[in-house]
Design goal:
Layout (H helix, E strand, L loop, with lengths): L1 H69 L7 H36 L6 E3 L4 E5 L7 E3 L16 H14 L15 H13 L15 H15 L2 H9 L10 H18 L8 H12 L4 H13 L8 H14 L1
Antiparallel strand pairs: 1-2, 2-3
Helix pairs in contact: 1-2, 3-7, 7-10, 8-10, 9-10
């Protein structure tokens, strides 16, 4: 009778020891997880501070570069002027790229802290998502109502693709991420725009960075990809192939050709240069350079007598003036 009793006692002691060990392990695990969680938070906080500090420094550098660009002296030799402008624009673009990269890292930390940033909502009609812009809050995004129907299958059409995307976001009142002064937007708005622009890109384009979750980086990478294949000499040859004489009568074809050439130039130049006077001067000289001498004099006279309407893009105003002269 003693043996079974002794076995039973030891079984009870073994169970008690096992329970105590399990409790200790759980407590240790909880303590370790708590410490790791605190450590992760500390690391993220330090990362955020470091990114924000670097972001401030690069923004300060960018301001200096823009001031330098504004004071860039124009020259009668358009090629020399263009080379100077492009070198400075390249430096500005690298700084902008670094700024966008830092903004993306900051946004990724914010996104991790707000995992349901693009949470679905349902009303009486269908599913929608809420997002904020810099000027409004709680805008509703219904997927089927926001149709971007332009598709790009070849690198040659990237400038046209980006132009159509800009028109799209303007139509639906998103923030204009092509504007220099806009570098940070609502992470939910960013995600929506990334989804839309990626849907318009054909996989065969093989654009570096289109898997990014930063709309600024995607746009910059598209421009960079295009610039690699369309350098200064290629673009100059494209302009030289166009000669407008008084006998031109296919106005629509001419307008399309000039608009595409302008879009290529605006795609090549960095984002910060889109609305600056130096680009306006460059585009004016390029468009006037396509005209026969007699036509150029007439166009310049018309430009002098009819000032530019600020509500119309300057290059559009120039092209329209050329077409009007031909029609007259």
């Amino acid at each position: 009778m003693a043996t079974p009793m002794r076995d039973k006692t030891w079984n009870v002691l073994d169970d008690n020891i096992s329970t105590q060990v399990q409790l200790k392990v759980k407590r240790d695990d909880a303590a370790i997880n708590s410490q790791l969680s605190l450590k992760d938070c500390s690391i993220k906080d330090e990362q955020m501070r470091r990114y924000q500090r670097s972001l401030g420094e690069f923004k300060h550098i960018l301001i200096g570069l823009k001031q330098e660009e504004e004071t860039l002296s124009e020259t009668d030799d358009i090629q020399v002027f263009a080379e100077k402008l492009l070198r400075l624009a390249s430096t500005i673009e690298k700084v902008e790229s670094r700024i966008q990269e830092l903004v993306g890292k900051i946004q990724s930390i914010v996104i991790e802290e707000n995992a349901d940033r693009l949470h679905e909502h349902i009303d009486a009609t269908r599913v929608y998502y809420l997002f904020d812009t810099l000027s409004s809050t709680n805008k509703r995004f219904y997927l089927k109502d926001y149709v971007f129907d332009y598709k790009s299958t070849i690198i040659e059409n990237i400038p046209i693709f980006l132009s159509n995307f800009r028109k799209f976001i303007k139509k639906y009142q998103f923030d204009d991420v092509f504007k220099n002064e806009i570098m940070e937007i609502d992470p939910r708005e960013n995600e929506i725009m990334c989804t839309i622009i990626k849907d318009g890109l054909n996989e065969r384009l093989d654009i570096t960075g289109t898997h990014s979750t930063n709309i600024f980086k995607i746009i910059n990478d598209l421009r960079t990809k295009y610039r690699i294949l369309h350098g200064r000499e290629v673009r100059f040859r494209a302009w030289e192939k166009v000669l407008v004489v008084t006998t031109c009568r296919d106005y629509k074809s001419l307008m399309d050709k000039l608009q595409k050439l302008v879009l290529k130039e605006k795609c090549i130049f960095s984002k910060c240069c889109q609305d600056c006077p130096t680009l306006r001067y460059y585009l004016q000289e390029a468009i006037l350079g396509t005209l026969h001498g007699s036509l150029r004099n007439l166009v310049e006279q018309r430009l002098h007598n009819h000032p530019h309407d600020s509500h119309v893009d300057y290059e559009e105003f120039l092209i329209n003036t050329v077409i009007e002269i031909l029609i007259d």
